[in-house]
Design a protein that fits this description.
Layout: E1 13-20, E2 23-30, E3 35-38, E4 41-45, E5 58-62, E6 65-68, H1 74-84, H2 89-93, E7 95-99, E8 116-120, H3 147-156, H4 164-172, E9 235-241, E10 274-277, E11 296-299, E12 308-309, E13 313-314, H5 318-321
Parallel strand pairs: 9-12
Antiparallel strand pairs: 1-2, 3-6, 4-5, 6-13, 7-8, 9-10, 10-11
């Protein structure tokens, strides 16, 4: 991993002065609130010890970018809706997918259809269904958002969704080749370091971290770059179209995923899917272990669930042009 200097957020103005064709150019750029600057660098993306779609581990160069320090919260999304009148897809069709632990039955093999329920009037305001609400949960990550819902919010704040490469580079927090944001040790077995499923998924959730579903953003320790919940809490939309074998031929600099027409989920080959990253409160050691930094998963961009949210990114402008050198 190349040395990286992370610039925390603040309402600071940076003045860049450069000489271009004999003219003195002065530009200003405000550091965005609650974002972290990730300096350009190189890292090993993927894993040779993880799931098949994380293979092969390969070197990637990433240009510098900003990324949200926290997942987008209910309060953030509420501000967006209040100002724009935006209506999410789940609100439009009046249902969404909600996890419910299935009845214990050792005579059958359980699969996703046994724990995902299409719940009428479940949406971002009612995460578990019509009898639930977000009162007292404004700092929890917004859920029941499709890819387009997430993108609409990011557009509203003048940002974008991160790529898979940007997300993993940021999630690693400067720890090259390690399994978790905090290192290689399974600290989640003994410490509350991320919001994941404790116990045997999907039947036994011990809730030893204090949260059966989402936790407030920032409740768990930040990684080495100051990012909270970059693994665990909720899966997060990224901009790439998904392909399980993309890493075998992906470019080494700023990869952005395959085209929509080339997207492939072997379990649903006729449906183009986006990637999601970071894992959620439903990820356990015995199931997906999605809170590993290399973990990735395909998701239907038009489907919303109660364990998927997002955070935004932003390319630099003046700072990128002039390599963040300022006087």
């Amino acid at each position: 991993m190349s040395n990286s200097t992370q610039f925390s957020v603040g309402v600071l103005f940076v003045v860049g002065i450069v000489l271009v064709d004999g003219y003195l150019i002065v530009e200003t750029d405000a550091e965005p609130s609650n974002m972290v600057w990730i300096e350009a660098g190189s890292f090993t993306m993927g894993s040779d010890r993880g799931m098949p779609d994380e293979y092969p581990a390969h070197p990637v160069d990433v240009s510098g970018f900003w990324i949200d320090k926290f997942e987008v919260s209910n309060q953030d999304f509420q501000s967006f809706v209040s100002e724009t009148g935006y209506v999410t897809f789940s609100e439009t069709i009046e249902d969404s997918l909600v996890f419910k632990s299935p009845e214990d039955n050792h005579n059958m093999r359980l699969g996703p259809l046994d724990w995902w329920n299409l719940v009428e009037r479940a949406d971002w305001r009612h995460p578990q269904g019509p009898d639930d609400n977000i009162e007292g949960k404004l700092e929890h990550p917004v859920v029941h958002v499709t890819y387009d819902d997430a993108l609409a919010y990011c557009n509203w704040v003048g940002k974008i969704l991160p790529t898979e490469a940007q997300f993993e580079f940021a999630a690693r927090g400067g720890k090259e080749g390690e399994v978790y944001t905090w290192g290689n040790e399974p600290l989640h077995h003994s410490h509350s370091v991320t919001n994941n499923w404790q116990g045997e998924f999907p039947l036994d959730n011990e809730v030893s971290d204090g949260y059966a579903t989402t936790a407030p953003t920032g409740e768990f320790p930040a990684n080495g770059y100051g990012l909270h919940d970059i693994t665990g809490n909720v899966w997060e939309w990224v901009s790439d179209w998904y392909h399980p074998n993309y890493y075998a031929s992906s470019p080494s600099k700023n990869p952005i995923g395959v085209s929509m027409s080339d997207s492939l989920d072997p379990l649903e080959p006729g449906l183009a899917k986006r990637s999601i990253r970071g894992g959620s409160f439903l990820c356990s050691d015995n199931y997906c272990a999605g809170f590993r930094v290399s973990a990735r998963m395909p998701a239907d961009p038009g489907t919303a669930t109660n364990h998927t949210g997002f955070r935004c990114a932003r390319r630099s402008n003046m700072m990128e042009k002039f390599s963040r050198r300022s006087i």
